């Protein structure tokens, strides 16, 4: 073999190694899971701040949940209301995923619910199971209706 032939073999070997490394890195990159998005909340507001900013504040039992893509529609039988609710039933929305800050409502359970202006709620708000909302209930006092 001549020097030119040896040099060509060396170049081909380097090209093959480079192509192999590129394929391995590509497979690792493509097979890696996509970055997840986690819910990030600001510090929890006080009861007074949450009440002031809420469109509706009520206690109720979940009677229905429908999930359509990224949103869940949650219907409640209202048991008490402090703000913005004048009917016995109300329907609100929450993101369907916890990673999008959705509240994990469950049919049959009762909650104290705070909603935004567009009647949504999430885990970054003071919405909570009614049995765990004693601090809020003592500050809210008598219902509004």
The low-confidence runs, each spanning 5 or more residues with pLDDT under 50, are 19-35
Q: Biggest sheet: strands, sense, closure?
A: 5 strands, antiparallel
Radius of gyration equals: 28 Å
State the order of secondary-structure elements, H for helix, E for strand. HHEEEEEH
Structural class: alpha+beta
Major beta sheet, strand line-up: 3-2-1-4-5
Q: What's the oligomerization state?
A: single chain
Whole-Å distance between the termini?
Answer: 98 Å
**Net shape:** elongated
Strand count: 5
β-strand amount: 25-35%
Name the average pLDDT: 84
Residues in helix, %: 25-40%
Number of helices: 3
Brief descriptors of the model:
single chain; alpha+beta; 3 helices; 5 strands
Short description:
Helix content is 30%, strand content 28%. It is an alpha+beta fold and 145 residues long.
How would you describe the overall organization of this protein?
The chain is α+β, with helices and mostly antiparallel strands and 145 residues long. The protein is 30% helix and 28% strand. A five-stranded antiparallel sheet has the order 3-2-1-4-5, with helices on one face. β1 and β2 (71-83) form a beta hairpin.
Fold topology:
Blueprint: H1 3-31, H2 47-53, E1 56-68, E2 71-83, E3 89-95, E4 110-115, E5 128-129, H3 134-140
Antiparallel strand pairs: 1-2, 1-4, 2-3, 4-5
């Amino acid at each position: 073999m001549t020097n030119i032939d040896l040099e060509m073999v060396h170049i081909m070997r380097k090209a093959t190694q480079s192509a192999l490394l590129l394929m391995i890195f590509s497979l690792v990159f493509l097979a890696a899971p996509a970055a997840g998005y986690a819910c990030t909340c600001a510090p929890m507001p006080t009861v007074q701040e949450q009440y002031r900013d809420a469109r509706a504040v009520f206690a109720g039992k979940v009677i229905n949940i429908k999930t359509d893509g990224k949103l869940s529609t949650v219907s409640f039988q209202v048991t008490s209301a402090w703000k913005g609710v004048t009917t016995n039933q109300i329907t609100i929305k929450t993101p369907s995923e916890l990673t999008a800050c959705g509240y994990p409502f469950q049919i049959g359970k009762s909650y104290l619910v705070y909603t935004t202006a567009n009647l949504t709620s999430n885990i970054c708000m003071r919405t909570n199971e009614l049995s765990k909302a004693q601090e809020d209930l003592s500050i809210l006092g008598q219902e509004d209706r």
